[in-house]
Amino acid sequence: MSTSHRLLRSLCLSAGALLFLILAGCAQNPVSGKNDFVTMSEDSEISVGRENHPKIMAEYGRYEDEALQRYVQSVGERLAAVSHRKELIYRFTVLDSPVINAFALPGGYIYITRGLMAYLNSEAELAAVLGHEIGHVTARHGVRQQSAAQAANIGYVLGTILVPELRGAGSQDLFNMLGRALLSGYGREHELESDGLGAEYLARAGYDPKAMLDVIRVLKNQATFAAMEAKRQGKQPRAYHGVFATHPDNDTRLQSVVGAANRYVVPNAQIKRDVYLDMINGMSFGDSPKQGVRSGWHFYHADMGFAVSFPEGWQINNLPDRVQAVADGGKAFIEMTASDLNRRLSPAQFMKQRLGVERLKAGQVLNNNGLEGYTGLVDAESGGLVRISVLYLDEKAYIFISATKDKRLFNQFDAGFLSTANSFHRLRKDERALAQGQKLVVKTVGRQDSYRSWSKSTPITNSPLSQLRLLNGQYPSGELRLGQKAKQVK
Q1: Cα separations in angstroms, 58 against 54, 63, 241, 242, 293
Q2: How much is the pLDDT for 127?
Q3: How many domains does one find in the chain?
Q4: Do both 117 and 233 map to the same domain?
Q5: What's the first-to-final CA gap in the chain, in angstroms?
Q6: What SS3 state is found at 443?
Q7: Alpha-carbon distances, residue 483 vs 100, 469, 486 (angstroms)
Q8: What is the pLDDT of residue 167?
Q9: Which of 75, 170, 230, 360 could form a disulfide with 237 if both were Cys (CB 3.0 to 4.6 A apart)?
């Protein structure tokens, strides 16, 4: 038998074995009533959510506002009661994260961040987000996605057993590519299906299903703003998960699936704008005090007990394990991290022994604000210079790494690098209030109010004028209306 005939015969056997696996793994979809390929029972699906829920809590943290948690749970339950899987017990949790996101685990565990809630403007919009995520659960999207991934992997394993020629790295890359294409295709269809299901649940629960389109506009505006901010920093933008945010709000298929929910609409469908705004009045905005708070070009951390000032006008990014400051266009950056002290070393010795810096140039002692420190320059692999500074506070070493994108610009920015390191100090009593974070404040707009006047007094660090408009659904150029309720940040 020729190699080509043997390869064809083996591929047919492989396809047949995979087909048998697919037929054996079919189950009725709760939404469509059709048979789907799944490799997980409902009990196993629920256990996935139950086992991973504590991990989500550990990573993000639960927002400590029990009235708000009960409110979100009640809205979610109202939608779940008219869903295709009303027999499940759904758990809706507000996460203590400024990231704009919502997602679901299999089995009825659904999450929304306070970061996303800050930019919604009615209970109907909240219900749209929760309804979309309920749609992922009712249609078993997570289970179907995982089953598709298993099928792609099993298909490759079967292929390599039956077709030795497929064992090379190139073939693995091909299967990976096909698997990714399959999964991304499912993802697009799943997101659109969840939009339609969410709109249906909205209407059945007495809300206006057009709120689904309002939420998508909110997320599209966020994506536009994030892209502009990222371009200013010379970075890639981060966005809401999936393609929920990438639908244009005039997309024909989207309009169709949302419009299909109109047959369920009841008279006087609810929006509940004021109820929602009253519930989020006083909610934390932006950074959590547990992870440090940005205010202007300053950064305060109550738990760790320090404050630091970055160059004025730079974008400050507060990440779980570091703080970054980036100049316009990404021309320069400063990155601050912290590390436990374990031996009695001087800051200069710490640089050499812990950071592995062997050839430090222009080293000098830092003794500003009563803290022990050291700074110097090292040669970068690109041929430029990097400034490294280390300061001690209590049992931790705070490490500043500063550099420029273009080595020719280093001297232009180095004074700012040194100034940042020298600004590091123990948190003062008068700064403790600043370290407690920002809050949303809902106000009835008066004659003297405008976004421009609000932007001058807000503690929002980055692009305050744009962010205030985003918060109130009037991005990019809307204006406050006399008598309306609107969100400020204090």
Answers
A1: 6, 12, 20, 23, 20
A2: 98
A3: 3
A4: yes
A5: 78
A6: strand
A7: 28, 16, 9
A8: 41
A9: 230
